[in-house]
Each structure stands twice: as structure tokens, then as C-alpha cells.
Amino acid sequence: MFETLTERLSSAFQSLRGQRELNEKNTAEGLRSVRTALLEADVHFKVARDFTDRVRDRVLGEEVLKGVNAPDQFVHAVHSSLVELMGPEDARLVMDGAPTVILVAGLQGAGKTTTCAKLAKHLRDKHQKRPLMVAADVKRPAAVKQLQVLGEQTQIPVFHREGLDPAALCALGVEEARAKGCDVVLLDTAGRLHVDDELMEEVAEIARRTQPQNQVLVVDAMTGQDAVRSAEAFHSRLSLTGVILTKMDGDARGGAAVSLKAVTGCPILFLGTGEKIGDLDAFSPERMAGRILGAGDVVGLVEQAHEAIDEKEAQASFDQMVMGNFTLEDLLGQIRMIKKLGPLKKVMGMMPGMGQMLDKVDMDDNHMGKLEALFLSMTPRERLLPQSIDISRRRRIARGAGQEVGAVNQLLKMHKSMGQMMRKMGLSGGGGKATRKALKGMAPGGQLAGGAGGGMGLGDAMGALGGLKNLFGGGGGMPGAGDMDMGNPFGAARPMGSSATRKSGSKRKKQKKQRNKKRKR
Length: 521
Known about the structure:
Number of helices: 22
Order of helices and strands: HHHHEHEHEHEHEHEHEEHHHHHHHHHHHH
Shape: flat
Structural class: alpha/beta
């Protein structure tokens, strides 16, 4: 998400590189590029104008921060203004009432029914609530059945009665929740293809009969400014308390997310980031602004990893790798851990500096499945002793996985290079003791330990998987997280080669020049 906006803003920031200080002239040039980027991302033109005015006031009106160059000053002002634009930071559902009623409204095709089930699961799993979903969309064919199927998948009860109008059905659903001891009721109301009087009267009657504490609108982020206009229409009749943006995984422009709060005054509560029932993320303006500016979402990535990956398993695997006992069985475990985090494009987009590279690299999730097929075509002994895999075994493994022998050769070559890299990591800095000390720097609950030199940063932890850059399909040359400079959160990723690496590179260049001279002679 936001790939286009991130790329355009990065280009705008590049125009300020090399400037020692900000003045009226270079600030105006930078703001012109930022305004163009926002308009191309389908941000409302009034929002884009007010935003650039706010950035100008921050850049030229604030005291210059010591030790910070002009481009970073400008980026800091843009980041702060984005957070302010999409805030407030503490927007959340109101949870008071017995039970708490959440009216879910929206147009057809926005993903309202699926979002209702996602939200119910989120409240149950993250907030220990006992939700009940009411299937009140009697207009759309199979809408009731869809919610019932989602209820079976998530094991959340669904209430419905035939022959009742939507308002009476919702009122009866609230009484059913009270009788069963459910503390949250989600009303899945009917939608239309467009905003009309019949739709508005129906949801207004449901709101009058049930007195919901939360009136939430579900809008499709891919519709751009149409999402903002439909939110304005609903807000004028319902007094919305929040908005949920869906299909954010397919929205490359992001204009709706940026301008929705400013135009309607309704805070964004959640983002639908995928088709799976668990793909619902709480909205954070601070973290979203970071992703828009290419700084990624490190906190979100750590939280996601903590939920999907067993911490003891990950620590044991990492320790095994740097101690030099890195087998194909360990590599298979690493691949399976990465798959648990979700689609590769989503995961890499949460890493600093990666947002600008997503369109340049072919990250095929099917490639992971092909690699796993190669591993499963091996015997347990072969996975533990990769040096025993000779040419005849490679042919057998390739046939078993339905692939070419070259795929097996590439896998073994990658495993060998990763093993060499991990052994070097283990030898430098005290070997296994240093590694275990770094691992203990991870704070409990998956949070990264803070402080200079204290604990293991995300770049170091993910850097352990740096050799997996060839797993993303297409031989795309994706750099590992450990190869990037995490100290520049708003700039593009920069390679961090060691001094020894740089010296060896320059030495090779000199030798190549000498060989060319000899050939000419």
C-alpha cells in the first residue's frame, strides 16, 4: 500500500539533498513536489493545499534543530504534519454498555460483512470480549449465509430471524445478546450500490431502535475520493464515530487514508489489509506516516512476528545458525517462519527502506512453496547432511518436487553461502557467547530492547535471514534487512558494507585495471 505516494514523496525529498539549510526558495520547490505527489495519490485538493501550508509553517517557523541537515528537517516536518492530519492517535471504539452495540454500515462491495467478522474476531482475541453478530443484511442475496459461514469459521455466534425488517431484527439481536451474556453486538446492516434515501432511512431507523455506542462505516480504500464522499454522506445522517478502510493491500495510491479524517472529521479505526479473517490492523497515524514516508512499520512487524513465531524456537534457530550448525532442516524452519508472517510484499513493506523497492523486485509467494517442495522431497538424513547430496540424489529430489535439477543446485548453493555468512557472524565478536548475549537483549514479549548498544536491533535480528534474499523469486536481488542502514528512518536504505569489504572491492578493481592494461600491451 502507498507505493506510489511513497515513491513520489521520496523523489520530492531527493530534490533537497545537498542543501545546507532551508530557505523560502528550496522549501517552495520541495512543497511543490509534495503537493504534486499528494494530488497524484488522489488526496483531496483542499487537504493537499492545507497540508503543504502546515508543513511550510513548521519548516520556516520553527527553530532549526542542531545537528540535523535540511532534508531531514523537511522530512521531519512532513512526518509530523501527516500524523496530525490522520490523527488522533488514541481513536478507538467506545466500550461501555451492557452490551456495547456496534452498527456496521457501508455500501455494497466494500467488504462490510467480512469486516464485521474480522472485527468480532479482533475484539474476542485481542480484548477478551464475547461478541455476537447480527445478520441484518436482508437485501443482498446470500449475505446472511455469508455471515453464518464466517461465524462458523471464527466460532462466533450469529443471530438471525426470518420475516423481520432490519430494524426489528437488530433490536431483537441486542436483546438476544443481553440474554446470552454477550458484551458486544455487531450489527451487519444492508448496503446499496450507491447512497440513496432508502438506505439512509433504514440505517437511521436501526440506530434509533438500538442506540449504538459506535456507528462505524466500512469504505473501500481503492475507490479514492468516492470513499470520502460516501463517508461524508453517511456522517451527515448517522453521526459516525469511526471508519474502517478495507482493501488497503490493493490500494497503491492511499489518497483516501490521508484525506478521510481531514474531510469528514471521522477518525480511522482499523485497516483491512488482506482477505484472511485475521487481516485487520488497528490504525496508528504515527506508524502509518512512517510507512508512507518509506520508514516502514518496525513496531507492527515486531508485533506480527511475536504473534506468529514462537520466540524460543526463533532464538534456538538463530543460535544454531551462528554456531555453525546450519542444516537444510534449519533453513526449512526459517522459510516456514517467514511464511507465518503473511504475504512477502506486506512483510517487506513494513521494513525501513523497502517500500520503494517493492515494485522493482519480483516477490512471488509461490516461490516459497516450490522451495518447501524441494525440502520435502529430501530424506531427513539429506536435510541434516546436505554434503551427502550427490548428483544422483539431486536428480531424484528434483523429480520428486516436479522441478529442474538447477533448482536443487541453486538451493544448495544458497544454503552454503548462508552457512559461511553465519559462521563469520559467530567468529566475530566472541562467537556463540556474544550471540547469546545479543539474543538476551531482546525484551520480553517480543519488544526490542532500547538504548545504544543494548540489545539486538531489528536489523540484526532480521539480518540473520539476510541470505534469504534469493528466496523472493525471480532472482531479484532483494537485500536482507541486515544489509540496510536502520539509522536513517526517513531516507532510502543504504548498503552497510564493512571496511574490509570495501577495501577488498577496491583491491579487485585495481587488479582488474592492471589486467586490462596488460592485455592492451
